[in-house]
Amino acid sequence: PAMQRMEANVLVLGADRVGKSALTVRFLTRRFIGEYGDTKSIYSHSLAVEGREILFHIWDFSYSQDGADESSAEEKRVQWADGFILVYSICDRASFNILHPKVQFIKAAKEATSQEKVPIVIVGNKRDLHHQRVVSSEEGRLLALSVDCGFYEVSAAEAYHGSLMVFQGLAERFCEAKLAP
Ligand code: GDP
Ligand code: MG
């Protein structure tokens, strides 16, 4: 049978310097560069999962590129996206704390216009920096559980594998959302 194709817009969100670009570029190129400029581009990359091909359009959003941001601009980005990758750093407590309200904002915005469960994956990045860890794996897992999101702890610096898991996990959530009655 012909492979089923899907397309999905993905917004990568999180505090500054948590590794949003590192994670995105890892997925796109399998490489870790170290420093990433701000980009306004949306990158497309496909992934085969569960017999389907999913073409992601990935927006690695940086708040620093636009300075102070309007909540209406955030609302527009959220409406553009079909799925979300919310990144924090395990070394940065504040970056973790902003995610719960972020998930609630996204769910409120998306579920007002759609019946489908919105695919969201939470990512604790910089797992390699274990001496600087301030957010435990358990806290990350519990947050994800409490808001019904996927969860991964990864190191974009150390390996490609983690970023692949994140995008595969998101792809599986897309498939689930489409299959649900
Ligand atoms: P963004 O602002 O969220 O896009 O963050 P960047 O991707 O630009 O990364 C911010 C800084 O953290 C850069 O210096 C990266 O090299 C570094 N970084 C990103 N991911 C990791 C990681 O997994 N481990 C370590 N040790 N550093 C990382
Ligand atoms: Mg960036």
Automatic annotation (TrEMBL):
Reaction(s) catalysed (UniProt annotation): GTP + H2O = GDP + phosphate + H(+)
Annotated keywords: GTP-binding, Hydrolase, Nucleotide-binding
E.C. numbers: 3.6.5.2
Translocase in keyword set: no
GO molecular function: G protein activity; GTP binding
Signal peptide: none
Superkingdom as given in the UniProt entry: Eukaryota
Keyword check for Transmembrane helix: no
Similarity remark: Belongs to the small GTPase superfamily. Ras family.
This protein's name: small monomeric GTPase
Organism annotation: Alligator sinensis
Whole-protein residues included: 26 to 206 of 231
